[in-house]
Automatic annotation (TrEMBL):
Protein name according to UniProt: Alcohol dehydrogenase catalytic domain-containing protein
Keyword field contains Oxidoreductase: yes
Region ranges (Disordered): 1-20
Listed cofactors: Zn(2+)
PROSITE patterns on file: ADH_ZINC (PS00059)
Listed Gene3D superfamilies: Medium-chain alcohol dehydrogenases, catalytic domain, NAD(P)-binding Rossmann-like Domain
Domain Enoyl reductase (ER): 8-343
Family of this protein: Belongs to the zinc-containing alcohol dehydrogenase family.
Entry-linked Pfam families: ADH_N, ADH_zinc_N
Organism listed in the record: Streptomyces fragilis
Length: 346
């Protein structure tokens, strides 16, 4: 089969690799029908995730059709159309039993495209298939389902829920990429008073206004002054960091009000200064984390019923064999306007 293989920082190749096979009784081998690229994949290619070693097939967001299963798999069967979660769950360890799947100690957590071969391929082996895949109703398209693999649960759990967005809040989302936009979309479920987006790209600021932001600012604008103006001089109730660089994290700490919440959803590849000399007295709560995907069933129901509008996230479409072109377009989002790309099998 063909797959996108990581060969070290800055090096990738769409090449021939062996087909995956069932190795354990809980495995499923799944034919990829649609797949996308994550900002985390770009971090890997920059060398920000040293646990990813050369030779690894990348990718952790896909929809596919089950081809074969191990003897212990009972929830899915060959022929089923499924969502492949970005988080794999053993379902039995302490953390999985607490629905903290990202902390799985039984062989799960974020492993696809990280510690084992991922989904940017024609086929993939998914461990713990019963607890790491979701059957998809006909009413949910492949493109909409792709958004449920990672960005929707990530933005909802790590941004909105961790940030404790509440009715009447002022929420600042720094970064209007896919996760930031999804945070704006899911924040609307809690009726915030104002959602303010901050992003340097004009196209992404325009997208933010379409996805739930009331105000969209560039970093060169006087962002702090505007936030203070909208909050009676206090600062935002919630700031959500959705980029993963020191400057955007520090901006979130500067914009939050006393007693507010900072929810870090970005993937950081270098150290960030935490100004506790300023923050300690403000009673600020800061949260971090990898998505658990515990809300995926709920989000899937909402998308299936039309209660959560995820239209407009996919901006560029390719065939699966056009993986290199898709990476080029996605990695130059500032020039191409790409939000999420979708690659489909022929």
């Amino acid at each position: 089969m063909k797959a996108l293989v990581f060969h070290g920082p800055g090096q990738r190749s769409w090449e021939d690799v062996p087909d995956p096979e069932v190795q354990d009784s809980t495995d499923a081998v799944i034919k990829i029908d649609a797949v996308t690229i994550c900002g985390t994949d770009l971090h890997i290619l920059k060398g920000d995730v040293p646990a990813v070693t050369p030779g690894r097939i990348l990718g952790h967001e896909a929809v596919g059709t089950v081809r074969s299963v191990g003897d212990s798999v009972t929830n899915v069967a060959p022929g089923d159309r499924v969502l492949i979660s970005c988080i794999t769950s053993c379902g039995r360890c302490r953390f999985c039993r607490e629905s903290r799947y990202s902390l799985c100690t039984g062989g799960g957590s974020w492993i696809l495209g990280h510690l084992i071969d991922g989904v940017q391929a024609e086929y993939v082996r998914v461990p713990f298939a019963d607890t790491s895949t979701y059957k998809l109703p006909d009413s949910v398209s492949d493109e909409d389902a792709l958004l449920l693999a990672d960005i929707l649960p990530t933005s909802y759990e790590i941004g909105v829920l961790n940030g404790r967005v509440s009715p009447g809040d002022v929420v600042v989302v720094v970064g209007a990429g896919p996760v930031g936009l999804a945070a704006m979309t899911t924040a609307k479920l809690f009726s915030p008073r104002q959602v303010i987006a901050v992003d340097p790209a004009a196209q992404r600021r325009e997208a933010a206004l379409r996805h739930g932001a009331h105000v969209a600012l560039a970093p060169d604008d006087d962002v702090r002054a505007k936030v203070l103006e909208l909050t009676d001089g206090l600062g935002a109730d919630v700031t959500i960091e959705a980029v993963g660089i020191p400057a955007t994290f520090e901006q979130c700490t500067e914009l939050v009000r006393p007693g507010g919440h900072i929810a870090n959803a970005g993937v950081h590849g270098e150290p960030v200064t935490l100004h506790l000399e300023d923050l300690w007295i403000k009673g600020v709560t800061m949260t971090t984390g990898l998505v658990d995907t515990s809300t995926t069933p709920t989000l899937l129901k909402m998308v299936a019923s039309g209660g959560l509008d995820v239209g407009g996230f996919i901006t560029h479409r390719f065939g699966l064999q056009e993986m290199d072109e898709a990476y080029d377009v996605f990695s130059r989002a500032g020039q191409t306007g790409a939000l999420k790309v979708a690659l489909t099998a022929s």
